[in-house]
C-alpha cells in the first residue's frame, strides 16, 4: 500500500513541476483476467486491524478456490486451516491443518470472481514500484453484482490482467483489502485439486471426518472411554506449552440463550454445582422463565452426583428424566455446532480472544437455532 501511494504522489509531483508526464487516456474496456492461477495473498481487515496470509489456488472456470493459511512463527497458539470453497455446490470445507478435523459449512455469499466487471468504471493507469520496475497497472471501480451494497476498487496489471489489489468498502469505511503477489498462470495440476476435493467429500459423507482412519484388522484394544481419554489428553501444541481450546458451560430455552461461562481447570461435581448456583437461576431470571421451568441435562456423572442432586432439590428445580447413553438427543449440541462455525469464521488468535468471540457469538444465536 505504501509503494502504491508513493507512485501516485510522484506522478502528481511531476505535473506540478512542469515536467513531461504520461498522458492518461481512458481504456477501451476492462482486460480479461485469467481464469486459473496460483499464488499468495494478504487479506487485511480494517475493522479488526488484522491481516492473514495464505497460499491460494484460484479456479474461476469451475468456481472453486483453495486457501491454505500460512503459519506465523510469532503466534504459536493460533490454529491454521485449509479452506476449500466449492461455489457450484455452495459449500465450504474447513480443515484444521494440525488435527485434520473437517467442518462442512454452507456458503451464503454468491460466487464473486477475481476479475474486472464489464461495466466497471476506469479510474487511473500508472506504474507501481521504483525506477526500472515498470509494472503498469489499471485501476477500476464498480459495484459488483455479487456485492450490490459495497463499493469495489480493483487494481490489475495491464499486461496479463493479474489482480494486484482489491478493496471493498461499506458505508464509506474500508472493510477488507486483499493484496496479491507471486502469481503464476494456471494451476499446477488441474486434476489434483478436484480429485482431492472429491476424496474429502466422500470421506466426510462416509465417516463424518477427514482424519486418517485405522485400517481394517484386529479389534482395538482400547475401550471407547480410553479413546476419549487419549483424545482429550492430546489437545496441545507440539511444544507442550499452548492449548488451543477452552471448555464452556451454557444454557438456553425457547426464549433465547442464557449465560455462557468458561470452565477453568478440570470439571468435577463440586465445580458443576457452583456453576449452576451462579448461573442457572440467574439465566432463568434474565430469560423471564419464572419458577416453573423444567431443567434438562444428560446423565454425565457430574450431573447425577449427590451434591448436584441436593442443590437441584434445594432450589426446587424440576429436572427432566433423561434416557441413558443418548447424547444425540441433547438439543444444546446443535447450538454448540452453530457456535463453533460462527467462531471459526472470526479466526481468534489466543484463548482470551477465543473466549470473547464465543460469548459474543453465543449472544447472537437466533432463538430458532
Structure, explained:
- The chain is an alpha+beta fold.
- It has seven helices and 15 strands.
- The chain has helices at residues 2-16, 191-207, 224-233, 269-286, 306-314, 332-344, 351-364; strands at 36-45, 50-59, 64-69, 81-86, 91-96, 102-106, 121-128, 135-142, 151-157, 163-170, 173-185, 247-253, 256-263, 294-295, 318-319.
- It has an eleven-stranded antiparallel β-sheet. Strands 12-13 form a two-stranded antiparallel ribbon.
- A hairpin with a 2-residue loop joins β10 (163-170) and β11 (173-185).
- α6 (332-344) packs across α7.
- It starts with a helix and ends in a 5-residue tail after the last helix.
- The model is unreliable at 1-23 and 225-243 (pLDDT under 50).
